[in-house]
Amino acid sequence: MAEIRVQHLRKAFGDFVAVQDSNFVVEDGEFFVMLGPSGCGKTTTLRMIAGLELPTGGQILLGGDDVTMLRARERDIAFVFQLFALYPHMNVRKNIGFPLLAQGMPSAEIRERVEETAKLLRIDHLLNKSVSGLAGGDRQRVALGRAIVRRPKCFLMDEPLGTLDTEFRDLMVHELRELHNRIHATTVYVTHDQMEAMSMADKIAVMNHGVIEQFGTPREIYDRPATMFVADFIGSPPMNFLGFGGGLNKGAKEIVVQGAKVAVPEVREDIAPTDMALGIRPEHIRFDDTSKLRGAIYGTEYLGTTQIVAVETADGIIKARVPAEIRLSTGDHVGLTLSSARLSLFEKGSGRAVRTAVHDAASERRAQHG
Amino acid sequence: MSLTTAHSVVAPSANSKRIAGAIIIAYALISIVPLLWIFATSFKTPPDSIAYPPKLLFQPSLEGYCNLFTTRTRQTPEYINSLGPATDFCDETTRKRNMVIAGPSNFLPRFVNSLIIAFGSTFCAVFLGTLSAYGFSRFKVPLADDLLFFILSTRMMPPIAVAIPIYLMYRELGLSDTALGMILLYTAVNVSLAVWLLKGFIDEIPREYEEAAMIDGYTRLQAFWRTVLPQATTGIAATAIFCLIFAWNEYAFAALLTSGTAQTAPPFIPTIIGEGGQDWPAVAAGTTIFLVPILVFTILLRKQLLRGITFGAVRK
After folding, report:
1. Best residue in B204, B211, B214, B215 to probe A by mutation, most A CBs within 10 Å?
2. Core-most of A171, A255, A280, B79, by most CB within 10 Å?
3. What's the pTM value of the predicted model, to 2 decimals?
4. Which CATH architecture has domain B108-309?
């Protein structure tokens, strides 16, 4: 296993820039997820790490070696494709053993390694079956088996759960994470599904338009989104934004939104007057009739333990996650209280998050633990 | 219209099935009657074959096949009587017509020529076609669209339109009346069809297969050989049949460019007429034998052929 270091990686297809100046380090044994909407450059980045595309600029280091311009077969990596790419003319055993055959391994040893891998994935009973008759989950396991059997430097996975049913997908998310915990393989996993990313990743990079918007642990990304895009992309329903004007001074602890005063985490930088946005996670909103921040109930989605309530405010609809017991009917006027310690502030123009006490507290915690 | 008879949108109704069946039977009859007539004629005696009204029931005879494979000379009955007893069936039938067998005819070597040229050119066209189709399908070929159009454009006129230049070129190059020349010619005609057909098939094979193989330690050529080719067999088989049918049946070029050693069966068979009268049973026998290889080949690969005709129509 090895660490992956990506430096100033860039890829252009003609005039279209798919990846601009990407920098990140995947540490040895880490499960790293690249998350973003389709067309954001995450798959292109993965294919460059694999050697299926050559970068326009930048460097890729694999375990300290520069592999930027090496052929895919010279990199010692394994790739799991979205469509699995199982060879239909071979049975499960041959599919899993295919990479070993390329290395010229003796057939007895191939047999042993394939069976060992199949046991690990609990597909040893399928070894002599044809791959075309397999169920989605088993195909997925065979594809994983073909990757694991090589014991490569790292695993690259391109939306490997994208074609599975929801039911199978949840199962495979657990299985993949469990497998990772057992073999501790450096893994780069590409997905557009935030639930997959949040539940599996050690580190996540959120990409948009070829740029990594934020790189961090799932918790950092959820609690302290670096940009409005990340805040909007992560979370279901996503973060709400309420606009407000004017600048901020270092040390400010209160802002005015729609005529109501809202306490916010202490601001740690000066911001010149501009359009700003207050970011609120749906679960950080409570109904409180004394609040000056008001709106009318627009609709509700009942989810069993909680409900998502859409509230129409002067600045558009915001969604709140509140206990299911609260009885509400459309058109009711409600007051909204926000959990001050969990709020985010953004510059609307650049989308950048304003540095607040939340960030400083996190870096202090890191410094203490580190 | 009662609601109890569930009406399916896709399943054909009983009536349309009957009509479709009738059309197919009618078409099958129209296509198969001439073939049956040829087959029957090949087993008639020459007098039976030109009898009027035509004989549907007759005493089968192998005389046509004897005549196809031999050349005969007319002799006086005295001379024939002076020979020893007839050695085999052909000898005997020939003598009844006051003739003796002079030697083997050219049919067998012509038939072998046909096999060599048709299968040889099919192999070349499919081989070149597969490689080019793979290239066009997977790589960024400069001017790919123009090149593909150029390749297709070679099919836009009947090949025989260039017969005279090709005749002159072949005479200069010494390729006239050679198997090599015919293989080159049929390959050139078929390769455009092969490239286009196979590109369709290879486009349908996801690139992930080769990419997976290349990541797993194979070179591109190995990946092509081990993952793309096995999945393209259907397309390759379909293409091979189309190429073979063309090369096997081709008459005009063969008649123009081959006359002796490299002559194929199609221009040879009609020349049977004229050697000792209108020997329809021998012509029919030649045609029947000529049909066998393509018939066997097509029956063996009929599934692929069907898929070749409808290729690209249905996405998997």
Report:
1. B215
2. A280
3. 0.79
4. Orthogonal Bundle (1.10)
